[in-house]
């Protein structure tokens, strides 16, 4: 039997439950996982949960205003304590038998304690701790309570992902989005870091940046990327930005790193965005987007939009295919939306993987990051 390969990984790495389970166990259960933005947990009693590989972990702010992370497992029968996000005033109560914990993780109440248990030592049954840290305004969790600072993971790239200070930028709440892609999470990552496709799949939607002058490479498992604006967009750029500038005028370009595993950042002259990849199944991935913009008034945003409208009307952003050439009105390749183009390409590639005639051709120079990411996956899956 001939093993079909996508360069360094077999096709099964993108289709089989076994590979998916190994990645959940050996990658997503052993690395820092994005949980949310620092504003999500800003008052005592606020909490949120996140799936970090095989681990459900929640973050809560205690009465001392300190944020803590715990495994979302009741110490009685293992029932998950909380769901999603929310607020509580004083305590966290398991829905199964009403065992109750304070905001610092201590077990403080067991119903019918003396009758049912003949007394127990509650001091030994507090919630199991995990790690939580903040980096670039993002909350991260790690299943290991002794993993150390998140700077041990991101320190080498801290000053290489752009001049933006996201802590100083308010969230653009209307920019929040979540959607699913019918493709393996690595297909989504590989599309994100494929430099070769930028000038082709996105020939009509991303031509404001000069893809031929992109600078990119890996630092450890983390992929870094920067490219400058084309001359037409760079000249007198402050008059052309769609929204108010968020970085100094002498700093231009798009910073689009993909941090391991599956943490994308899209930052440019007028905004900062995160693109979080969440594996759901071998052939299904959720993507969560959140954005930050300039700390400016609505009037400033309106003025900037009006100021730049003439440039964008003439610059000619459009879909890869024209509307009159499209097979339907909702054809993603005629939408003029580069995200729709990416989703389409990822899903079409995933569909082809099931064909016995599938084989991958030679890798372009601009696809070198794809090959490097595949080697990183193999390294993390070594037993």
Please provide a written account of the structure.
By secondary structure, the chain is an alpha+beta fold. The protein has two domains: 33-149, 3-layer Sandwich (Rieske Iron-sulfur Protein), CATH 2.102.10.10; 160-380, Naphthalene 1,2-dioxygenase Alpha Subunit, Chain A, domain 1, CATH 3.90.380.10. Helices cover 21% and strands 26% of the residues. The chain has a seven-stranded antiparallel β-sheet, with no helix packed on it. The protein has a five-stranded antiparallel β-sheet with strand order 13-20-19-18-17, covered by helices on one side. A hairpin with a 2-residue loop joins strand 4 (46-52) and strand 5. Helix 4 (185-193) crosses helix 7 (338-352) and helix 4 (185-193) runs antiparallel to helix 8. It starts with a strand and ends with a helix. The mean pLDDT is 92.
| Shape designation | globular
Taking pLDDT < 50 over at least 5 consecutive residues as the criterion, the unreliable ranges are: none
Second-tier CATH architecture of the largest domain:
Alpha-Beta Complex
**What's the helix count?**
8
The SS-based structural class is: alpha+beta
């Amino acid at each position: 039997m001939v093993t079909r390969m996508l360069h360094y990984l077999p096709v099964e790495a993108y289709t089989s439950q076994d590979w998916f389970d190994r990645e959940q166990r050996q990658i997503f259960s052993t690395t820092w996982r994005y949980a949310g933005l620092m504003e999500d947990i800003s008052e005592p009693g606020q909490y949120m949960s996140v799936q970090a590989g095989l681990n459900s972990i929640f973050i809560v702010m205690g009465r001392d205003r300190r944020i803590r992370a715990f495994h979302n497992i009741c110490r009685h029968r293992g029932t998950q304590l909380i769901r999603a996000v929310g607020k509580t005033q004083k305590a966290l109560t398991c829905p199964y038998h009403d065992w109750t914990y304070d905001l610092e993780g201590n077990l403080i109440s067991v119903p019918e304690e003396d009758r049912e248990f003949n007394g127990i030592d509650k001091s030994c049954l507090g919630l199991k701790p995990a790690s939580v840290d903040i980096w670039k305004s993002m909350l991260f969790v790690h299943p290991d309570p002794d993993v150390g600072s998140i700077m041990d993971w991101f320190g080498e790239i801290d000053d290489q992902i752009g001049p933006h200070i996201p802590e100083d930028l308010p969230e653009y709440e209307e920019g929040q989005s979540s959607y699913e892609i019918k493709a393996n999470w690595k297909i989504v990552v590989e599309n994100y870091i494929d430099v070769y496709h930028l000038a082709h799949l996105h020939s009509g939607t991303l031509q404001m940046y000069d893809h031929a002058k992109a600078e990119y490479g890996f630092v450890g498992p983390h992929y870094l990327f920067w490219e400058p604006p084309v001359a037409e967009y760079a000249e007198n750029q402050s008059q052309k930005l769609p929204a108010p500038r968020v970085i100094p005028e002498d700093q231009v370009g798009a910073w689009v790193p993909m941090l391991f595993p599956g943490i994308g950042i899209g930052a440019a002259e007028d905004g900062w965005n995160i693109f979080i990849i969440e594996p759901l199944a071998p052939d299904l991935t959720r993507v969560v987007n959140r954005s930050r913009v300039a700390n400016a008034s609505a009037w400033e945003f309106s003025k900037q939009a009006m100021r730049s409208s003439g440039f964008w009307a003439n610059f000619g952003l459009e879909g890869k295919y024209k509307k009159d050439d499209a097979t339907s009105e909702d054809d993603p390749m005629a939408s003029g939306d580069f995200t729709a183009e990416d989703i389409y390409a990822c899903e079409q590639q995933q569909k082809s993987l099931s064909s016995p005639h599938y084989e991958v051709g030679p890798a372009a120079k601009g696809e070198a990051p794809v090959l490097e990411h595949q080697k990183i996956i193999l390294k993390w899956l070594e037993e």
